[in-house]
Amino acid sequence: MVCERCKGTGFLTREDGKVDLCDCRFSEEDVNRVLGIPKRFWDKELENYIPETDEEKNALFQAKAFAETFGEEEGEGITFWGPPGVGKTHLAVGILKKVYREKGVRGFFFDTKDLIYRLKLLMEEGRTTRAIRKILDAPLLVLDDLGSERLSDWQREIISYIISYRYNNLKSTIITTNFPLEGEKKGVKLSERIDPGTVSRIYEMGRVIYVGGKDRRRSGGLKLWDERGRKGS
Ligand SMILES: Nc1ncnc2c1ncn2[C@@H]1O[C@H](COP(=O)(O)OP(=O)(O)O)[C@@H](O)[C@H]1O
Ligand SMILES: [Mg+2]
Fold this sequence. Notes:
alpha/beta; five-stranded parallel sheet; two-stranded antiparallel ribbon; globular; binds adenosine-5'-diphosphate; binds magnesium ion
């Protein structure tokens, strides 16, 4: 998906030697803004997710298949779970952009914690109705980092409500979480953070994919600072 005019550089050199920003830079910015994608993830695409482990290969395969077969009326969802830094948010963002570009379906990205916080502010101002409708009825919604914090009763309720409504009305939801949904193993499970009924709806909404691998935020491959602490490229 490299721009033919600027060959992906984002710059165009005019005949007089001056440099302009290529239009594609603006349109890329638009895509990210329209979908509510946080700046850190603006350059993330399924095309630049490089899988190393078999689990990562499977996760990418499933993400592509989901985006390619996405149908607005089908209510199919996808959930990525696994340790931090393995690219779950990257995959969710990649799907959202691919579906928008190729199917013209406009979804929304939300960090779940941020979503709850914003709803709380709106509620205090008595202005929740329109915002919540937008979230309930979006044809595709990303709930990123679900269950990352202990939730109060009110917060659990709102998350359950959003997921149940979307489940009942065949609206597609993409979820990422650091926790297994349920199970025998020790440690936190999503079913302890949100109510178990909501967890079973997540299973019914679509595939649940484990993403293994190493934490790319800590690994050498993505080192942003050299040994002297200078910022690299
Ligand atoms: N397989 C991958 N290929 C390219 N970049 C990756 C890959 N996995 C993770 N990253 C990058 O590592 C960083 C952390 O990934 P992120 O999606 O935030 O992880 P998670 O949501 O699983 O905690 C991001 O900059 C992401 O683009
Ligand atoms: Mg994440």
